[in-house]
Amino acid sequence: MLQNKSFVRKTRQGKVVKVVREHYLRDDIYCGAPFCKVCDSSAARLSSTASTILIVDTNVVLNQIDLLENEAIDDVVILSVVLDEVKNKNLGVYNRLRALCSNSVRKFFVFSNEYHKDTYVKAMVGESPNDRNDRAIRVAAQWYQTHLGDATKIVLITNDRDNKRKATEEGISAETVESYVKSLGQPGLLDLLAQAPSEDVAKEGVEDMRPSKKKIIYSEHKPMSEITAGLHRGIFHQGKLRVNRYNPFEAYVGSESIGDEIIIYGRANMNRAFDGDVVAVELLPQEQWHEEKSLSIVDEEDEEEDGIHLVPSSADDAPRVTNQIQGSLGNANSESSRPSGRVVGVIKRNWHSYCGSLEPMPMPAGTGGVAHALFVSKDRRIPKIRIQTRQLGNLLDKRIIVAVDSWDCLSRYPSGHYVRTVGEIGDRDTESEVVLIENDIDARPFSSQVLACLPPLPWSVSSEDLENPIRQDLRHLRVFSVDPPGCKDIDDALHCTALPNGNFEVGVHIADVTNFVHPGSPLDDEATQRGTSVYLVERRIDMLPKPLTEDICSLRADVERLAFSVIWEMTPEAEIISSSYTKSVIKSCAALSYVEAQARMDDSRLMDPVTADLRNMNALAKVMRQRRIDRGALTLASAEVKFQIDTETHDPLDIGMYQIREANQMVEEFMLAANISVAEKILTHFPLCSLLRRHPSPTKEMLEPLLRMAAAVGLNLDVSTSKALADSLDHAVGDDPYFNKLIRILATRCMTQAVYFCSGDLTPPEFSHYGLSARLYTHFTSPIRRYADVIVHRLLAAALGIYKLPGVFQDRPQLTSIADNLNYRHRNAQMASRASVELHTLIYFRKRPTDTEARIVKIRSNGFIVFVPKFGIEGPVYLTPRNDKGGGEWLVDEQQQKVKKTDGSVSYGVLQTVRIHMEVVEPQPNRPKLQLTLI
Amino acid sequence: MEYVSPEGLRLDGRRPLEMRQIKAEIGAVSKADGSAVFEMGNTKVIAAVYGPREVQNRSQQLSDQALVRCEYSMANFSTGDRMRKPKGDRRSTEISLVIRQTMEACILTHLMPRSQIDIFVQVLQADGGTRSACINAATLALADAGIPMRDLVTSCSAGYLNSTPLLDLNYVEDSAGGPDVTVGILPKSDKVTLLQMDAKLPMDTFENVMQLAIEGCKAIANYIREVLLENTKQLEGAGSSSGSTSTAYVKSSAPGALDAELMHKFAFRGWIMCLFGMIKFQTLGIPCLSIF
Ligand SMILES: [Zn+2]
Question: Which domain of life does the UniProt lineage start with (chain A) (predicted)?
Answer without folding.
Answer: Eukaryota
